[in-house]
């Protein structure tokens, strides 16, 4: 075999391998026995050659080609290459749907077939509303609303309104300048107030430390009171108070009892009168002894004795005075 023939065969093999590799990279296998079906859509924004064909969430094929049809309203004819084991029919629908990232896929929806397809047939198609279309529709409505609002605002902001707004802004600027001037003129007072606040804050910090110590002392006192045997002390105090109450009750009973000595002393008026009379008699006797001491004490040096008469006055319980005359004998000895 000549050298030219070898080169020609090598070139043919390279071209065939290049074609097969190119189609394989595009997602088409020239050596496969897959079946081809067709689907026509009004537009296929985001659908590319090699896009997957999905059945029940599983890839069963891919888009082999996209062809523009000017004679049919510029619709798009998509060639779908499916695996040989997939059975389609006259009820099968090829739905065009999109993802969040903007890419689109074709999803097969199977139904009850009255006729089965063997390849080359055109499938029924449906187009789902994509997220991009929904966003675009919402954005269109929103833009219309914004335009309408801006038109109302422009109509409201006429020349007089603009003048008023400008006057308001000028007044606000003047007020800001006046406030700034006031702050600058009173800067010394503001600094003094700031220093006073700092001193007050420092004093509060010191007071806070003292309050913390006081709270700690109260906490310790509370703990000491909690640990102290207050219960037994209170029980002893209650017992002592009960005994004192019992004793006072006994004294009160004895005082109210008219048969006892204390009861008679308090409640018997006769005993009171007798004691009063006795005290009065004792007072009278002492007074008489002071007035007439010779009637009670007599000195005799030579002996002998004479009878002397002594008058004794007593006060009766009813307040009357009674005078009695008594004889007193003397002896020869010194009598005291």
From TrEMBL:
Residues 308-336 are annotated as: Disordered. Residues 183-210 form a coiled coil. Pfam families: MlaD. Keywords: Coiled coil. It comes from the Bacteria. The keyword Coiled coil applies. Residues 35-108 form the Mce/MlaD domain. The keyword Coiled coil applies. InterPro entries: Mce/MlaD (IPR003399), MlaD_Phospholipid_Transporter (IPR052336). PANTHER family: INTERMEMBRANE PHOSPHOLIPID TRANSPORT SYSTEM BINDING PROTEIN MLAD, INTERMEMBRANE PHOSPHOLIPID TRANSPORT SYSTEM BINDING PROTEIN MLAD-RELATED. This is MlaD family protein.
């Amino acid at each position: 075999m000549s050298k030219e023939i070898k080169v020609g065969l090598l070139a043919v093999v390279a071209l065939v391998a290049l074609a097969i590799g190119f189609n394989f990279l595009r997602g088409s296998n020239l050596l496969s026995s897959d079946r081809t079906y067709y689907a026509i859509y009004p537009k296929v924004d985001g659908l590319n050659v090699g896009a997957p064909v999905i059945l029940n969430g599983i890839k069963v094929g891919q888009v082999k080609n996209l062809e523009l049809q000017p004679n049919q309203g510029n619709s798009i004819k998509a060639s779908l290459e499916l695996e040989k084991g997939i059975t389609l029919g006259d009820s099968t629908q090829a739905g065009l749907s999109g993802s969040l990232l903007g890419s689109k896929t074709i999803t097969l929806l199977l139904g009850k077939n009255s006729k089965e397809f063997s390849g080359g047939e055109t499938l029924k198609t449906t187009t789902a509303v994509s997220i991009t279309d929904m966003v675009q529709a919402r954005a269109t409505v929103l833009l219309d609303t914004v335009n309408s609002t801006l038109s109302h605002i422009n109509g409201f902001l006429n020349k007089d309104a603009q003048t008023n707004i400008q006057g308001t802004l000028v007044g606000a600027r003047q007020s800001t300048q006046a406030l700034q001037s006031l702050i600058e003129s009173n800067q010394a007072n503001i600094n003094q107030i700031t220093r006073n606040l700092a001193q007050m804050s420092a004093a509060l910090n010191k007071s806070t430390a003292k309050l913390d110590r006081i709270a700690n002392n109260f906490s310790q006192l509370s703990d000491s009171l909690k640990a102290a045997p207050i219960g037994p002390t209170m029980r002893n105090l209650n017992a002592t108070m009960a005994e004192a109450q019992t004793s006072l009750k006994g004294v009160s009973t004895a005082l109210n009892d008219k048969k006892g000595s204390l009861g008679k002393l308090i409640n018997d008026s006769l005993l009171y009168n007798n004691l009063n009379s006795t005290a009065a008699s004792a007072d009278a006797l002492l007074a008489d002894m002071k007035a007439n001491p010779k009637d009670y004490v007599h000195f005799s040096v030579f002996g002998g004795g004479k009878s002397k008469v002594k008058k004794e006055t007593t006060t009766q319980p009813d307040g009357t005075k009674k005078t009695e005359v008594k004889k007193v004998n003397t002896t020869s000895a010194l009598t005291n």
